[in-house]
Amino acid sequence: MGVKGKKVIAFIAHPDDETFLSGTLARLVQEGNKVLVVIATNGDKGTHDRAQTSEQVTAIRRVEMERAAHVLGVTVS
Fold first, then answer.
1. How confident is the model at residue 1 (pLDDT cuts 50, 70, 90)?
2. Helix (H) or strand (E) run with residue 7 in it
3. Checking DSSP bridges between strand 75-76 and strand 34-39, what pairing results, if any?
4. φ and ψ at 39, to 5 degrees?
5. Which residues on neighbouring strands pair with residue 8, listed in sequence order?
6. In what order do the strands lie in the sheet with 75-76?
7. Domain segments of the chain: what residues?
């Protein structure tokens, strides 16, 4: 990929958007880069389920993002 041993920042709009970059993020980490993923929103609008509050959706999205970050080997902010 040509980027090795660097600090890389990936900006995404919503928690779960890392899915679209997962292959690239994993490869960057595999090549020895430190990767930080910055999320612009908290994901509270990410459902049509009216039974869930914004706070519940935010908490779910945060846990999902933390788990994905762990698998990918990235840091989330």
1. low
2. strand 7-12
3. parallel
4. -105, 130
5. 35
6. 7-12, 34-39, 75-76
7. 7-76
